[in-house]
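If I may wish for something, please sit down with the protein I am sending here and say whether tokens and residues agree:
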Amino acid sequence: MVLTNHTKTNRQLKTPLDWGKAACDSLMAAYKPSELPPDGRWHYHQGVFLESMRQLKEAIGGQNYFAYIKVYVDHNIDENGNFLWNRKELDAIQAGLLLFELDQQTEDPRYRIAAAKLRNMFPTLNRTSDGGFWHKDRYPYQMWLDGLYMGGVFAMNYAKIYEEPELLDMVLEQERLMRRHTRDQQTGLYHHAWDESKIQPWADEKTGKSPEFWGRAIGWYGITFNEILSFLPDNHASKMEISSALKDLAASLISYQDPDTGLWYQVVDKPEADGNWIETSCSALFIYTIARAIRGGHLDESFKPYAIKGYRGLLERMKFDAQGHFIMPEICIGTGVGDFAHYINRPKTDNDLHGVGSFILASIEMQALLPEL
């Protein structure tokens, strides 16, 4: 039996942080750290969820969260700092965000050794002719929006903590290249990917851009805009440029927000197209993007109603099982690049880790805008 959001459980959740905690705790109850799906490996699915848990811990406390993250990391990293990850893709770097606090809070050298291994991937990555990282080696000459978040946020944290400022410059350059190659002038949205070789079936023969604006990829980009701005000093030459790009994206997003639900569609700019559907993880990421940008002073208060409407709409979608455990439905599983049919035919799932992680992040940010529901 699945309970609706009109249950006693739901009524006990009075703040966004309550909702974030409910989501986090439900997945902790369902999985041992070593068993987090898809298969317990070192991967961004686990990384997004556990990084959201780490940030929730900073907001509400909870040694159990720190311990859970540590068990996951220790399951993957041996006594010498060795671990298995895919050295040929940006996605594998994201879970490295979990290593910094462990390195700072313990005297165990393994965590910095592991972080250095991930940091040292960057010089080995294949690049386009103008210097953009390939998303994966099996996707040659392709830049995907997702990749800027997967590698960039780790790189900026590493730069700050271990004093390698050149990594911040690297991220700024990757962002400029990504924006140059994927931003759409007409909508202000970002195409999922760009193929420099223009040989992929989905690539425009003139521009190399993919044909559609896939929600979750744009959501990762919104996170990264906010992250970049948090690392830049106020007098940095790129501050105004990135802030302006974030505001431009937010303005585009609210123009495609569904007026009834406050949420967004799988293919963002085609809400009325047959087969398109409301997708919860991208909606959570867009809410996060807007809410954090307001907190950071990059968006004014006029954007606040859109974030609130979106978050309230997102809560209306959430469910609970008979045990009162949180369920986030209608999450698109991981996907490659393709045409409209490709995206709308992707399977939906419940409680996918990067979907729940996105919800928790949105809940953390919404606490400042909506202290009580």
User: Anything to note?
Assistant: The first helix runs from residue 8 to 11. The chain has a mean pLDDT of 96. Strands lie at 2-3, 142-144, 193-195, 319-321, 326-327, 331-332, 348-349.
